[in-house]
Design brief:
globular; three-stranded mixed sheet; single chain
C-alpha cells in the first residue's frame, strides 16, 4: 500500500512539473499563482502592520526604494508586454516598502509585494546597488522560485496537499511554509536556502531587469563583494538564502556583456548616474529593449 501511495505521489509530482516561461527550466509547481498572490497580499499586509514602515514622504531612503522599485517594475512590464507575454505579470500590483530593521535583508512575494530593510542600505550604497538587490528579489518572484520551494515543502511536510486544503487543515504550518519559502523566516525559525540553480537564475534575470530600467549592472560585482564582507564573523541573514562566493562573482562577470546590452539599450543616457552615490539613473522613462530578448 505504501508503495502504491508513493507511486501516486511521484506521478502527481511529475505531472505538476511545468516549464517556467521566464527561465525555461522545468519546475515543480503545485500551487496556482493566483492563490499564492492572494496569500501574499494577506501576509504582506500583516507584515507591514507588525513592523515599522518608513514613510517615503519624509525619508529620502524610502523614496529611493519606491523610485528604483517602480522603475524596475515599469521596465519589466514594458519588456514582457512588448514580447507578447504580459500575462506573466497577471495580478501583479506592485508595492515597495522600506522597513526600519537593522537586518541586512530584502524579499519579494508573488504579485510584486516587496520589502527592503534599512540594514541593507549601507551595503547597497547607491541606486545602482539597490537596483541589484531589487532586481534579484523580483526575479525570484517572477521566476516562481518561492512556488517551487513551497511545492516541495507541501510534498515533504503535508504529502502534496493542495494549498486551500492545507490552509483549512493546518493553517499555522502552511503559513510557516509560505513565510520560509519567501525568505521571511526570522519570525518562524530557519530559512529555506535557495538552490544554487535558483540563485544563478535570480542573479541573471535580476541583472537584466535592473539594466532594462537603466541601472548600471556593473555595480553587481562590488555589491556582492561588499555583501560577502558585511557580516564580520557571522554572515548576514540575507546571505543565508543568497550565498555570495567566487562562483557567483564569476557567473556575474560572464553574463555582464549581455546585461550591458540591456543597459545600453535603455532609454536613459549612459553616464547620467554615479556609482557609489545615491543619485542613480532611474527616471521612470520607459526602456527601449524591444530588439533584445532574454
Amino acid at each position: 500500500m505504501k508503495k502504491i501511495l508513493s507511486f501516486i505521489l511521484i506521478a502527481s509530482m511529475l505531472a505538476a512539473c511545468s516549464t517556467n516561461r521566464v527561465t525555461g527550466r522545468k519546475q515543480l509547481s503545485l500551487v496556482p499563482e493566483s492563490e499564492l498572490q492572494t496569500m501574499a497580499s494577506q501576509q504582506y499586509d500583516a507584515f507591514l502592520s507588525e513592523n515599522k514602515v518608513v514613510n517615503p514622504s519624509s525619508s529620502q531612503d524610502a523614496a529611493m526604494v519606491h523610485k528604483v522599485g517602480r522603475d524596475i517594475a515599469a521596465a519589466i512590464t514594458e519588456y514582457y508586454n512588448n514580447a507578447g507575454q504580459g500575462d506573466l505579470l497577471k495580478g501583479y500590483e506592485w508595492e515597495f516598502n522600506l522597513v526600519d530593521n537593522k537586518d541586512i535583508n530584502a524579499w519579494a512575494m508573488p504579485g510584486g509585494k516587496v520589502v527592503v530593510y534599512t540594514g541593507i542600505l549601507p551595503v547597497t550604497q547607491s541606486e545602482d546597488g539597490l537596483a541589484v538587490v531589487l532586481g534579484h528579489e523580483i526575479a525570484h518572484a517572477i521566476a516562481q522560485h518561492g512556488n517551487e520551494r513551497m511545492s516541495h515543502q507541501l510534498v515533504q511536510q503535508l504529502g502534496g496537499m493542495a494549498l486551500q486544503v492545507a490552509l483549512a487543515n493546518k493553517p499555522q504550518q502552511t503559513q510557516d511554509i509560505f513565510l520560509t519559502s519567501y525568505g521571511i523566516g526570522s519570525t518562524v525559525g530557519a530559512l529555506l536556502p535557495f538552490s544554487r540553480k535558483e540563485e544563478l537564475e535570480a542573479d541573471k534575470f535580476g541583472l537584466f531587469f535592473s539594466a532594462m530600467a537603466g541601472y548600471n549592472p556593473q555595480e553587481a560585482i562590488p555589491f556582492w563583494q561588499r555583501m560577502a564582507g558585511s557580516g564580520g564573523g557571522k554572515p548576514p541573514e540575507f546571505l543565508s538564502t543568497h550565498p555570495a562566493d567566487d562562483t557567483r562573482i564569476k557567473k556575474l562577470e560572464g553574463i555582464m556583456p549581455e546585461a550591458m546590452k540591456f543597459y545600453n539599450a535603455s532609454s536613459k543616457s549612459p553616464g547620467s548616474g554615479s556609482k557609489g552615490t545615491t543619485t542613480g539613473k532611474g527616471t521612470g522613462t520607459k526602456p527601449k529593449v524591444k530588439k533584445i530578448r532574454l
